[in-house]
Amino acid sequence: MPLLTAILFGLLAVSCSKEQKLLDVIPSSVDIVGSVRLKSVLDKAGCRYENDAAVVPAGMDAPERLTAIVNLIGCMDASGVCNVDETYWGQSGEGKFFAVLSVSDRKKFKEATAPEINWTDETGGYTCGKVGTMAVLLDDERVWFTTEKPSEAVKVIEGLMDDAKKSAIGAMTGLVQLLAEDNLINIAARQGNAEKNKKGAKGENPNLEVKWATLTLNVNDNKLVGNSSMIEADGKPVAVAGMQEINPAVLAYVPGNFNIALGFGITPEFDWSVLTAAIGTFGGFQTQGMISAVIPYLQSVDGTVLFAAGPATPEAYTDPDFGNWQFIAMVHLPQQKINDVMGMMRSSMFMAGVSPKDVGNGVMMIPQYGMNIYLGNVDGYLAVSNFPFESGRQNSLAPVFGGKVGALSFSLPTLKVLGGGMPDYGLGVKVQMNPDNAVGEINLTGTDRPILEVLLEALV
């Protein structure tokens, strides 16, 4: 037993050492860093490497790029000197993408991958090559893949390693633990700019004080499942401020045939700057002006925000005209804010020559876009829809939204609505958000085929 224990600890130490060595050459200044079990992902997607050739699922019309990827990963795995299930990747703020793996024998790796990698010359201690549109650099410990031009690859990779000597992902205990987790995919995305926050940093390294949004993905019971959270560099969870549980009473206004529903519980302390900044980035002066006008109302939201929609006609998917869909949106605001919005809408309609009709209970009906738009104060919510408001509707949303600060429910009867070449399977998406994390799942209906196989087929 002592001998067995020593062997197990030794294997764990070697594994951790390899992962740590890879993370020690990735700078902490990257915008995104991740780990992926490449062979496991391909296996679950029905892609294998047998008899020195790629094998894809029967009936899949595989393009050359897919078979090339399967062949490359198969060659790397067959070399015996590289574990493709320990692939780390990242992207810098300048858009420089790279992936790195450990290699125990440089010569064997080069020989095993020669059928797929076009090895060219020796530069700066690296064996240089090219595969597809990516440059490849091989040394005695690692192999790098980068989207940079081959002539720039050595400079870029050496620059990354120089930056890592100053501060590496390997110094961030929380990210090290996340990236080593036994998931198919682990991702961490930087939230904020360390250099801009440098003046307010408590320590010498501002990168260690940046928060990271994380995502892990797996396949369980033929469902693609994910978990997301916000953490500090040391792994301490960060709760999203300004959120509260969704009020389930709003669900009573959603018809049972609606297949899109999104809701959040918001307090006035919620930070809207991320959303407004993102919208402002893509818009011009008019968009920014609109945001300035909307911000006071967003900051007044105190309660549930809900949006739901569903097909009003059989043509809803094939002809996504506005009139083929029904929708409802509800936002909990102080009474005065609701009155202000209602007043502005009445004035705008009269100026446009449109006469809103008062239908009672604080709701007005506006003929617009070939339909009737309903707007009013519904149970303390500013509500808008293109069908009459009615409480007591029946649906299956309560288990998804109940007790959560955010939730999404989405379904499609068939993937064919996304394109004629898509399979006839249905799609379901469910996301539930807690104060400090979010969990979600994607599943297919009407088939027993592996979900990654179907998704891969849809992508290619």
Overview of this structure, please?
With 460 residues, this protein is α+β, with helices and mostly antiparallel strands. The chain is built from 11 helices and 22 strands. The strands form 2 sheets. It has a 20-stranded antiparallel beta sheet, with helices on both faces. A hairpin with a 3-residue loop joins strand 21 (426-433) and strand 22. The chain is elongated. The two termini are 50 Å apart.
Helix-residue proportion: 25-40%
Structural Rg: 27 Å
* Cα end-to-end separation: 50 Å
- Shape descriptor reads elongated
Care to count the β-strands?
22
Structural class: alpha+beta
Low-confidence stretches are 1-18
> What is the average of the pLDDT values?
87
Number of helices: 11
**What does the main sheet amount to?**
20 strands, antiparallel
Strand content: 25-35%
Describe the structure concisely for a colleague.
This protein is 28% helix and 31% strand.
Topology:
Blueprint: H1 2-23, E1 32-36, H2 38-44, E2 48-50, E3 53-55, H3 64-78, E4 87-91, E5 97-102, H4 106-113, E6 118-123, E7 126-131, E8 134-138, E9 142-146, H5 150-166, H6 173-179, E10 185-191, E11 211-220, E12 223-231, E13 260-266, H7 273-282, H8 285-298, E14 303-311, E15 325-332, H9 335-351, E16 357-360, E17 363-368, E18 371-378, E19 381-385, H10 398-401, E20 406-412, E21 426-433, E22 437-445, H11 451-459
Helix pairs in contact: 7-8
